[in-house]
Write a structure and sequence with these properties.
The chain is an alpha/beta fold and 262 residues long. Helix content is 41%, strand content 22%. It has a single domain, classed as Rossmann fold (3-Layer(aba) Sandwich). The protein contains ten helices and seven strands. A seven-stranded mixed sheet has the order 3-2-1-4-5-7-6, with helices on both faces. α2 packs across α9 and α7 crosses α10. The protein is globular, with a radius of gyration of 18 Å.
Length: 262
């Protein structure tokens, strides 16, 4: 599998992810996941595919002072940034498909925007359930389909238009609710609930949005300087409908939160 399918970024891209992508697109989902998983003080919680750690750090504040928070990911660049942000979380490099924990250890398992990238999604879900205590709660967030995410779709189509490339559907491949439910059921989760939520993506400018997509995610060395300039110039012309009156960018996003009790 290539990096874009497994969500693997370079150290440089991880820094841009942390500085711009996280606040623009992902961070607002953390309180929703905490609420969906019903994380409480004293709980033992693991964040699967923790990236640079925003969700795990939010968890650690909620479970304090006697709880336990662990964040796992397979990307060392992401984990390095997470380690620099908090000592209240135990950060572990491990794959979601083989969690290094005993059975029935955690009260809650949470994960946001990672499942789409796992090489074996079924094994990962089985692992999440294995490490949950009986009665424990699971909350997993994935993007809705690309056609329900118009801003992100416009960005994808712009790339395709300029570079005659295929749209990268990986981030949206669990967007179909029926298929998502069936994935959890065939992974042994009986009582799945899926709710769809609207978020808001916000970037300082069209340039910041498109630059972050090019340099803050998986294929940061894919474009030459000239190609990046062409992409930025075309974006300024084609994506004006996403610009707010003060020159920033805002557009709605849509994601599914999957919850279950063991
Ligand atoms: C879009 S990022 C989301 C990170 C974080 N949850 C957040 O909300 O900012 C996806 C993450 O999934 C991780 N990932 C991909 N495959 C994985 C696997 N098999 N096991 C653990 N983490 C994985 C990537 O390394 C990356 O950090």
């Amino acid at each position: 599998m290539v990096d874009s399918e497994t969500g693997q970024v370079s150290e440089d891209a991880a820094m841009i992810y942390e500085a711009v992508y996280l606040p623009a697109l992902f961070k607002e989902w953390c309180p929703r996941v905490l609420a969906a998983a019903d994380v409480k003080s004293g709980h033992h919680v693991v964040d699967i595919a923790c990236g640079t750690g925003a969700l795990a750090i939010a968890v650690s504040k909620k479970v304090a002072p006697n709880g336990e928070t662990v964040g796992i990911d397979i990307n060392e660049g992401m984990l390095d940034i997470a380690r620099s942000k908090s000592f209240s979380v135990e950060w572990i490099n491990a794959p979601a498909e083989a969690l290094p924990f005993n059975d029935e250890h955690f009260d809650c398992v949470v994960s946001q925007f990672g499942l789409m990238y796992f090489e074996n999604q079924e094994s990962a879900i089985r692992e999440m359930m294995r490490v949950l205590k009986p009665g424990g709660s699971l909350a997993v967030v994935v993007w809705d389909r690309l056609d329900n995410n118009p801003g992100l779709a416009a960005e994808e189509y712009l790339w395709r238009q300029i570079f005659d490339d295929e749209v990268d559907e990986t981030p949206y491949r669990l967007g179909d609710k029926r298929a998502l439910e069936s994935l959890f059921r065939k992974s042994g989760v009986a009582n799945v609930q899926i709710t769809t939520h609207e978020g808001t993506a916000s970037f300082d400018s069209i340039e910041s949005w498109i630059h972050t997509g090019a340099k803050g995610w998986t294929e940061d060395d894919a474009l030459s300087d000239d190609q990046l300039q062409l992409l930025l110039k075309t974006a300024e012309e084609e994506l004006t409908s996403f610009r707010t009156s003060n020159g920033a960018v805002a557009f709605p996003t849509s994601a599914h939160i999957v919850t279950a009790r063991k």
